[in-house]
Automatic annotation (TrEMBL):
GO biological process: methylation
An annotated Gene Ontology molecular function: methyltransferase activity
Entries under InterPro entries matching the protein: Diverse_substrate_MTase, Methyltransf_25, SAM-dependent_MTases_sf
Descriptive protein name: Methyltransferase domain-containing protein
Domain Methyltransferase intervals: 37-127
Key words of the record: Methyltransferase, Transferase
The keyword Cell wall biogenesis/degradation is annotated on this UniProt entry: no
Length: 251
C-alpha cells in the first residue's frame, strides 16, 4: 500500500508544483551556504529551491521522474544542486558523506525498517538528520473543516465518524527512535493559506488518499466539497498548517 500511494505524487507533476505550498522561510535559516545536503523525496523542489538559494550544495533523490524533471528545471540557475531519480532505499550512496540529510514531508514514505540506518550511513559523524513534517491543524475556516467531514463520510467509507482536526499543541512530535542519532530537537511553525474553491480542489488532487479513491467516489467528493465552499462559505476557505522541523545529530 505504501509503495502504491507514494507513487501517486508523480501522476500530475504540474499540478503538484502549482498546488503544493512551500515552507516558512524560518525553517531554512540554520542551513549555511556550502552545506552539503542530501534531500530525499524533493518533489518539485519545495525545500530544494530555498536551500539552493541559501548556497547549499544539494543532491536530491526523487522517486518520480516527472517531479524530478520539474525540480531540475527550477534549479537550473544553481549548478551545485542536482536531482537524481530513484527510490532512496535502492539508491547507491555516493562516496563522500553529507553534512545534512533532509526530507520534507517525505520521510514517512520511506521503508521504516531501513530509513534511519541508511540516513545515518549517508551522513558524516556529527552531521544532521533534518525532517520536515506537515500537519493540517485546527484553526482557519473551522466550521468548513467540521462540515466537510460529512462529504468524506459519504464518499470515503474509511472515514471515522465525527473526525475533527487536532490543535497544534496536541499533535505529537515525529522522529523514529534510533541509536544512530542523538536526541532530536523540535521547532514548529503555524501558518495559514487562503484558497478559492478551485485552488482547494487542486490541492486535494495532490493528496495520495484523494488520488487513490475510485474515480466515481473522488468526483462525488470533490463536487460535494466544491458546493460546500461555494454555497456555504462564500467561495473561499483558510487552511492552518503546522510545520515541524526535527533535527538530530548522527553519532
Ligand atoms: C508528499 S511529497 C513531498 C515532496 C516535497 N518534498 C514537498 O515538500 O512538497 C513526497 C515525495 O517523496 C517522494 N518519494 C516517495 N518515496 C520515495 C522514495 N522511496 N525515495 C525517494 N523519493 C520518494 C515522492 O515521489 C514525493 O515527491
Amino acid at each position: 500500500m505504501r509503495e502504491r500511494l507514494r507513487a501517486t505524487f508523480g501522476e500530475d507533476a504540474e499540478r503538484y508544483d502549482r498546488a503544493r505550498p512551500g515552507y516558512p522561510a524560518a525553517v531554512f535559516e540554520d542551513f549555511a551556504a556550502g552545506t552539503r545536503v542530501l534531500e530525499i523525496g524533493c518533489g518539485t523542489g519545495q525545500a530544494t529551491v530555498p536551500l539552493a538559494g541559501r548556497g547549499c550544495a544539494v543532491t536530491a533523490v526523487e522517486l518520480s521522474a516527472d517531479l524530478a524533471a520539474v525540480a531540475s528545471g527550477k534549479l537550473a540557475d544553481f549548478p551545485s544542486a542536482t536531482v537524481e531519480i530513484g527510490a532512496f532505499e535502492d539508491w547507491p550512496l555516493p562516496p563522500g558523506p553529507f553534512d545534512v540529510v533532509l526530507a520534507a514531508t517525505a520521510f514517512h514514505w520511506l521503508d521504516p525498517a531501513t530509513r534511519m540506518v541508511k540516513a545515518a550511513e549517508a551522513l558524516r559523524v556529527g552531521g544532521t538528520l533534518a525532517l520536515i513534517t506537515t500537519h493540517h491543524v485546527a484553526g482557519g475556516s473551522e466550521r468548513f473543516f467540521a462540515d466537510v467531514q460529512r462529504c468524506y463520510e459519504r464518499f470515503d467509507p474509511a472515514t471515522p465518524p465525527g473526525l475533527r482536526l487536532s490543535a497544534a499543541a496536541d499533535v505529537p512530535t515525529t522522529f523514529d527512535e534510533s541509536d544512530r542519532f542523538g536526541p532530536p530537537r523540535f521547532r514548529r511553525w503555524e501558518w495559514e493559506l487562503d484558497y478559492s474553491t478551485a485552488e482547494y480542489l487542486d490541492l486535494l488532487l495532490t493528496y495520495s488518499g484523494h488520488r487513490a479513491l475510485p474515480p466515481e467516489r473522488r468526483e462525488g467528493l470533490l463536487a460535494a466539497i466544491s458546493r460546500l465552499i461555494d454555497e456555504e462559505h462564500g467561495g473561499r476557505i483558510t487552511k492552518r498548517y503546522l510545520t515541524e522541523l526535527a533535527t538530530a545529530v548522527r553519532r
